[in-house]
Amino acid sequence: MSTDTTTYVLVPGFWLGAAVWRPVADALRAQGHTVHAVDLTGMGERAHLATPQTGLTTHVDDVVTLLEEQDLHDVVLVGHSYGALVVTGAADRVPERVARLVYIDSGPLPQGMAQADFDGPETRAANEDQVMTHGEGWTLAPPPWAVLADGVDGVDTAAVAALVAGSRPQPWRTATEPVTLTGAWERLPRTAVLCSFGVDQVRQLAPHAPVFALMVDGDWSYVELPTWHWPMVSRPAELADVLGSVGQAAPVHA
Predict the structure, then answer these.
(1) Cβ atoms of 228 and 80 closer than 8 Å
(2) pLDDT in tens, 148-205
(3) Distance CA 80, CA 25 (A)
(4) Residue 183: left (phi > 0), alpha (psi -120 to 50), or beta?
(5) CB atoms near residue 104 (< 10 Å)
(6) CA 248/CA 237 separation, integer angstroms
(7) How far apart are CA 7 and CA 77, in angstroms?
(8) Whole-angstrom Cα distance, residue 16 to residue 59?
(9) Which of 21, 112, 226, 245 is deepest in the core (most CB within 10 A)?
(10) Cα–Cα distance between 175 and 124 in angstroms, integer?
């Protein structure tokens, strides 16, 4: 067990709640760290709180409230996928409470962009059609986990069943509400843990693709952990080790 302890706040991406982090959180706690895995409003055990007004700001508020109510400082704030937007927004609001930002197979989006913009206009249009047709006009259904997991090392039928059981429809406003930042988050060190794409791709795309533009300038470090987009499911022990190492490198504010 490490003699140096770090506080982690783990924020999931679309459709999932705190439970998806359980193997990673357990491993970090076994290393002696403090871990808060977050159920965002409308997700996980807080699914009953979802409304058509649940958006990105709602989820940023969730994380800021946790940091303030628990009086957390020197936190390693970890966001997976859409969670990247949430942790960036929270760090922008209370940078004095954050030691490092960690992005799992994701990164911050530029001012004015939304999560729905990431995959391009055709995918956004297809998702909007699904929302209107099957999501009562305000939720996006979870994906076909078994199809996505087919052939992925480390993801067995039990893991797929847990993903299915733990998924909830995503309030669509979280995808369409644009990022609003002051720039305060930019002074924080950040690490990208890259799983479905690598460092070379980031560096090649950043000058041309706005969605990658903020992933190269500033105090960045990178770790490649090749697997599918959900490494907390397929490679939880390795991800916990990566986070443990990153946490030990996080600066502590005096």
Answers:
(1) no
(2) 999 999 999 999 999 999 999 999 999 999 999 999 999 999 999 999 999 999 999 9
(3) 14
(4) left
(5) 31
(6) 17
(7) 9
(8) 13
(9) 21
(10) 9
CB 20 within 8 A of CB 232: yes
Alpha helices for the chain (secondary structure H): 22-30, 56-69, 83-93, 121-134, 145-149, 157-166, 173-176, 199-205, 231-234, 236-249
> pLDDT, tens digit, for every residue of 12-29?
999 999 999 999 999 999
Burial class of residue 150 in the structure, from the number of CB atoms within 10 Å of its CB (0-12 exposed, 13-18 middle, 19+ buried): exposed
C-alpha of 88 from chain center = 10
Distance (Å, whole) CA 217 – CA 34: 30
Q: 151: burial class by Cβ within 10 Å (0-12, 13-18, 19+)? A: exposed
Contact 239, 232 (CB under 8 A): yes
With 0-12 / 13-18 / 19 or more C-beta atoms within 10 angstroms meaning exposed / middle / buried, residue 113 is middle
Report yes or no: 166 and 44 within 8 Å, Cβ to Cβ.
yes
Nearest Cα residue to 195 out of 153, 147, 145: 153
Instruction: Spell 116-144 as b/e; 16+ CB within 10 A means b.
Output: bbbeeeeebeebbeebeeebeebbbbbee
